[in-house]
Structure formats: structure tokens, C-alpha cells
Amino acid sequence: MLGFGRKDANGDQTRIEHRGRHTRASRTGGASVRAQGKIGKTNATVNSKHGLRLSRKVAKGTQINLQNGRLGVRGRYGKGRLKTNLSKSGLSFSWRARRGSFNITRPARSSFKIAGMQFRGKTAVNLHIIFGIIDLGILCLKLLWLPFGLVIALLLTAFSSRQGDQDEGAVG
Fold first, then answer.
1. pLDDT at residue 171, rounded to an integer
2. Which stretch of DSSP H or E encloses residue 113?
3. Which of 66, 74, 107, 163 has the fewest C-beta atoms lying within 10 Å of its C-beta?
4. What gap in Å lies between CA 90 and CA 107, rounded to an integer?
5. Helix residue ranges per DSSP H, the chain
């Protein structure tokens, strides 16, 4: 009911929320009722918490909307992990990480998700930094272990071939 056990594309827990046809209740946003429809090519959404929103796609990845008398522009472009984001305040660049998006030019617009809980802003930046340091530490340990693993593999190979030579000499 609250999304427990539901996984997203990365295999992580989805947001913990109830989402019905006309209702939504979340951990931080509270409860709201909504209705939506289409008027020609324009989408109309009425929400008990956010009012009326009219939105329309103007190009691939670009949308304009009018919500409570305010004009909004949204766009997200790019393939791969690096994305360009468009808003009324200008362009920004974000990096898609496993746990969310880190906005390089405007870090306060970053997002981070863990165990179905979505974090945004400064909290998301701090979590990205903490998990980045942990990932960096794991990578360093793997890189430090690599030479030791190679030496051990070479010693085992040399020992097993020498042992095989001694066995052949004892038979003949």
C-alpha cells in the first residue's frame, strides 16, 4: 500500500507513499486530492494542495506550465549520466548517480534517495558527499588489494608448477 517492496529501475525501494487514482499521501508532503484531464494538447491538473496547473510540451524534453498565475519552464536534456537542465532561472548541469542526481552548478537542487526516502537540497548534497567518500574508500581498498592479489596468484601458479615438476621427477 505504501510502496514497500516496490523497486525502481535501479532496483532500489521506490518512494514511500500512497498513490491512488485521485489521492496521494507521502511522508513529507502530506495528503492531497487531484484530478487531471486534457484540453487539446494542454494538460490540466487540479490539486487540493497546489491549485490549478496547465502544462504543455513545447519540444522534446521541454515543458511550459502555468500554476497559480506563475509561468514555469522545465527542460532536461542529454544522454548518459550528465544532463543539462533548463528552468526560468537559467541552465544547470547535473550528474546522475545511483542514489539520485547531484546538481553540479546548483547543488541545493540535488536529490538523493535511500530506503524509499527522498531527500532534496543541502541534505541531499551531504548524503552524496558521505556516500561518495565511502565509495572512494572502497575503490582505494580494491586498488590496494589488486597488486597483492596478483602477487599471490603468481606465487600460487609458480608453486603449483614447481610441485608438478617434482612429482614428475619422482616417478621417472
1. 54
2. strand 111-114
3. 163
4. 14
5. 122-171
